[in-house]
Amino acid sequence: MAEVRVIARSVARKGKENQLRALLQGMLAPTRIEPGCKLYELYESDSKGRFYFYERWESQSVLDQHEATPHFKHLEQTIGELVDEPLEVNILKGL
User: Fold this and answer.
1) Residue 55: which of 91, 94, 12, 16 has the closest Cα?
2) CATH architecture entry for 1-9+30-86
3) Burial class (CB in 10 A: 0-12, 13-18, 19+), 36
């Protein structure tokens, strides 16, 4: 199984920065205890309202299981009203 690395980006709608930050921070604890999660970190850019997750997973199947969790489903259902554009998820390949 090949390790999977992810960078996910979200951009808050003006005035929704604090709500988006809180929603994303709420993902940290439950995700970090998921089987196969090697790293799950949240960063905020110096450009106001831009947030990035950096993730490392044991395999694609483990990442797929993450996307089926209740906390991820809650994120999907809630994030739309807080962002200017869809959540951008990038699977990274080493060079």
Assistant:
1) 91
2) 2-Layer Sandwich (3.30)
3) middle
DSSP readout, 14-29?
TT-HHHHHHHHHHHHH
What's the rounded Cα separation, in Å, for the pair 87 and 95? 25
Contact yes or no for 84/13 (Cβ under 8 A):
yes
pLDDT score, position 1: 65
Q: Please give the average pLDDT of every successive group of 10 residues along the chain, which has 95 residues.
A: 92 96 98 97 95 97 96 95 93 85
41 contacts 27 by C-beta, under 8 angstroms: no
